[in-house]
Amino acid sequence: MSPLQRAAAVALALGLALPTTGCLRLAYRRSMVDEAPDPTKLETLQAGDSLAVCLETLGAPTLIWGLGDDGAEGFAAVYASTLRGGWGLNASAPLGKSASGSLEFQTQNLDLDAVVLFFDLDWGLERWREGKLANLLPANLNEITIDD
Amino acid sequence: MPTVPSVRRSLRAACLLGLVSLLGSCFVSRSYINDGISPEAVASLEPGVSTAAEVVAALGAPGHVVELGNRSAYQYEHHKLKRAGLWLLIVGLFNEDTRSDRVWVFFDENDVLSHVGATLSAERASYSLPFQDRE
Q: Residue A105, exposed/middle/buried by CB under 10 A (0-12, 13-18, 19+)?
C-alpha cells in the first residue's frame, strides 16, 4: 500500500468512525463510594467492646438500624462502600422524527460491600460480619426515620 | 502519481482530524449534597454534657433520626462527588469518586449526648481516570 493509500485509509476510517460516536459507545466506568473499613483495625474489635471503642476505631457508620421494636433489642451499625468497575455498551438509533431508542447493557455490579456491627441492649459489640449488605442485614430491621 | 508533499499534507490532515476528534471529549464535574460538616463544631460536642438541643444548635438539623429503644441517634452527612471522563472516538473512560463527611451522635434516655462518631473525608474526593489508583 502506498503512503497516499494509507493516508486515505486513515482519513476514511476516521471519517467513518466519527459519525458512529453518536449512536454506539463502549465505556468503562469506575464508581467509588466511600472507603471500606481498614481490615487491620477491624480485626482489633472484639465482642464486648463498647460503642465508643468501635466509633473510635472505625469512625462514623453509614447507617444505623434499630433491631426489634423501635430499636429495643439493640442496633446494627453499617459501614458500606463501593469500588466497582465495568464495561458497558450503549447503542442508540433514531426511530422517527421526534423519537429515538436506546439499548444499554452494563456489567457493573452495584451491590454494596459492607461491614455490619451488631450491638446489644447495652450498646456492647456482639459480633461483626462483612460481605454484601443485602446478605448481612436481618429481615426484621426496624429503622424509624424522620425526614424533613 | 502523488507527490511526497501531497502525501504529507494528507497525513497531516488525518492526524489533525484525529486530534480534533479528541478535543472536547474530556470533562470533569463535581456535585455536593448538603453543606460540609465543621470539624470545630464536632469537636465542641461533649459526651455526658451536651444536650440534643445543643448538638442541633452546633450541627443543624439532622438528616436522619433513629430511635434506639428510649435512646436515639442523629445522623449528619455531606457528600462530595467528583467525576472525570474521556471519550476516545467510540470508547469512553469514566470515573466517579464519592467521599463523605459523616457524623453520628447518640443520646441517652435524657437526650444527653453519650457517643460521637465522625468521619470527615469529603475533601479527599478526587478527579481521576479508572486506571489511576485511588488516593
A: exposed
Average pLDDT value for chain A? 78
Rounded distance, CA B49 to CA B111, Å? 10
- The CATH class of the B25-124 domain is alpha beta
Torsion of Cα atoms, A110 then A116 then A121 then A123, to 10°: -120
Q: Grid coordinates representing A118? A: 451488631
In chain B, which residue's Cα lies nearest the Cα of A31? Answer: B96
Domain of residue A36: give its range: 24-142
Residue A11 belongs to some domain of the structure: no
- Alpha-carbon span A25 to A102, nearest angstrom: 11
- For residue A33, the chain B residues in CB contact (below 8 A) are 98
Ramachandran bin of B4, using left for φ above 0, alpha for ψ from -120 to 50, beta for the remaining angles: alpha
Residue pLDDT, tens place only, B84-97 = 998 887 788 999 99
State how many domains chain A has.
1
CA of B13 to nearest chain A CA: how many angstroms apart? Answer: 8
Query: Considering the domain boundaries, does residue A92 fall inside one?
Result: yes
CB B106 within 8 Å of CB A51 = yes
